[in-house]
Amino acid sequence: MVTDSHPLGLFKALSDDTRLQLMLLIMAEQEMCVCEMTHALNESQPKISRHLALLRQHELLLDRREGQWVYYRLSTTLDAGVQAILQHTLRHYRHYIRSAQERLTTMGNRPERQRLCC
């Protein structure tokens, strides 16, 4: 992980309200497009993109491009301890992202994800 052996980088990355909401939303949805995140958090695309870049820099997220869409998901190399922290936070503080998830349900024209076989 780019945050090296010192946990400060990790906790700084997660300490921002927008970044923490993004991580929890992505964890809850498994994968999200930038346009879904901007709609869910009611924020501009440049702001969301800056936060996503920092989360990618700390190897917390992976991205993939499919046509015009860029999708983000949790990194497959995420440390088990970090995963446990995020899972605990999502489980016990789901209300923290409830309004963002509700906004997401009102979004028309959500991009279709490619269905991958096992």
From TrEMBL:
Signal peptide interval: none
Keywords: Arsenical resistance, DNA-binding, Transcription, Transcription regulation
Thylakoid among keywords: no
InterPro entries according to UniProt: ArsR-like_HTH, HTH_ArsR_DNA-bd_dom, HTH_MetalResp_TranReg, WH-like_DNA-bd_sf, WH_DNA-bd_sf
Keyword DNA-binding: yes
Domain HTH arsR-type: 1-97
Protein name: Metalloregulator ArsR/SmtB family transcription factor
Organism of provenance: Oceanisphaera sediminis
